[in-house]
Every structure is written in C-alpha cells, then in structure tokens.
UniProtKB/TrEMBL annotation:
Family: Belongs to the D-lyxose ketol-isomerase family.
Name of the protein this chain belongs to: D-lyxose ketol-isomerase
Record's keyword annotation contains Amino-acid biosynthesis: no
Keywords: Carbohydrate metabolism, Isomerase, Manganese, Metal-binding
Record GO terms (molecular function): D-lyxose ketol-isomerase activity; metal ion binding
Catalyzed reactions per annotation: D-lyxose = D-xylulose
Xref: Gene3D superfamilies: Jelly Rolls (2.60.120.10)
EC code: 5.3.1.15
Entry keyword RNA-binding: no
Enzyme class of the recorded protein, top EC level: isomerase
Cofactor list: Mn(2+)
Length: 231
C-alpha cells in the first residue's frame, strides 16, 4: 500500500470515531515526531502493539479485502510483565471492504457494532484438517443462543454483538447500502503472530510504499525507547 492510502484510511477512521462519539486514549494522537521523544514509560504500547493498524491480509487490494483498526488495550502472552488477560480493539470498514475468513485457536472475542451501517458475519465451524465444516453453528448474540446452518451471515445492526468462540471460522462484510461501520472487539489476550488461522493463505501487515510522510505511526513502526533517549 502507498503511505498516502494508509494516511487516508486512518483519517477516515478518525472521522468515523468522532461521528460515533468514541474517545481515544492519548497515545493514539501522538505524531511521528512526538514518538521520537517517548521513552520507556510507553513500553507497554510498543511491546503489546497498541495503537493504529492497517491490514490488507497481504492481498494488495485494501479497498476490497482489508480494514483499519486500533488496539486500545492488550496483554502479552510472551511477556510475564503484562498480566492483562484481555484486549480491546476498534475496527473500521467502509462499503466494499471485507475481512478474510479465519479463526483463532485460543482467543474468544465479542464483535460489537459500535455505529454506522450493518455488518454481516459469515460463520462456519472448523472441520477436519481445519477446513469449513458443513455442520450447524451455535450462535451466542446479546444473551440469545440459537443455531444456524453453516455459512450463514449474521447481521449485526448498531449496538448488536456476537461471541466468536475458538475454532469458529468467521469473516466480515458490510451490508450494501448501509454505510461504513465502526466495530468493537472485546476479547481474551490478542496474539496476531500465533493465534490466527486463515482459511486461505493471508498476510498481516502491508508492504508500504513511502510516497508521503506518515500521519500516524502504525503499531509495528514505533522507534525503540533507547533510540529515543539518545536524541
């Protein structure tokens, strides 16, 4: 992706967050220049990859497969100093975008429509050799439990949510004509490096073509605290 595309996507997400009257923590507003002055007091942000993020799932077509997100809080399964067993994210999707079909081996999460249009979440149980099983799926949504056929798209209108159990394949699409969506994710500790199983091969972070300065640093771009202290 071009840096200009990333900047535009992050600005669009920030506008949607304001539209939904959601308030972000201070570190989300640090400029790249300010990050150059931040020392070890912000190691939790660096180590747990908090902050702005972009994914195109390695497919190079962000407007069709991908979304913008912010990790607001997270523990770290690899570092004992971070004991939070939970995580929280915001995800922003515009019409025409989708998220690749995937499941998590360990993480349970709630996906919440925080505002905007309607999101459609397709669900399958993981079957043999981690394929898509042709079995009914048990759904837990806002205190209601029910069963749907494999491949059903669960519609979430603003305020509605669904619980995604481990080994439950799911993808996201927006209902055409309903507008962009701000999603919330409340989950167990998030580990994108080891806990994602994509149905089709997919990547995580985009390859960036630097055609303009960054609006915000992404969560995998922060300068090390030691380098900041030497400035």
């Amino acid at each position: 992706m071009k840096r200009s595309e990333i900047n535009r996507a992050l600005r669009d997400m920030e506008k949607m967050i304001d539209r939904c009257s959601f308030k972000l923590p201070p570190f989300c507003y640090f400029t790249p220049e300010e990050w150059n002055e931040k020392g070890h007091e912000y190691d939790e942000v660096r180590d747990n990859m908090l902050g702005w993020d972009i994914t195109d799932f390695g497919m190079g077509d962000f407007d069709k497969v991908g979304f913008s997100l912010i990790t607001l809080r997270n523990g770290n399964v690899s570092m004992d100093k971070y004991t939070k067993p939970y995580a929280e994210k915001l995800l922003y999707m515009k019409e025409g975008q989708s998220a690749a079909m995937h499941f998590h081996w360990n993480k349970m999460e709630d996906i919440i429509n925080r505002g905007g249009g309607n999101v459609l979440i397709g669900v399958y149980n993981a079957g043999r050799e981690e394929g898509l099983a042709d079995t009914d799926v048990r759904i837990h949504s806002d205190g209601r439990e029910y069963t749907v056929p494999a491949g059903t798209q669960i519609r979430l209108c603003p305020g509605e949510s669904i619980t995604i159990q481990p080994c439950l394949y799911h993808d996201f699409h927006l209902e055409p004509g309903t507008g962009p969506v701000l999603l919330g994710e409340v989950s167990m500790c998030n580990d994108d490096n080891r806990d994602n199983r994509f149905y089709l091969p997919a990547g995580r972070f985009p390859v960036i073509e630097e055609d303009e300065p960054p609006f915000r640093l992404l969560c995998n771009e922060y300068p090390a605290a030691d380098s900041c202290a030497k400035r």
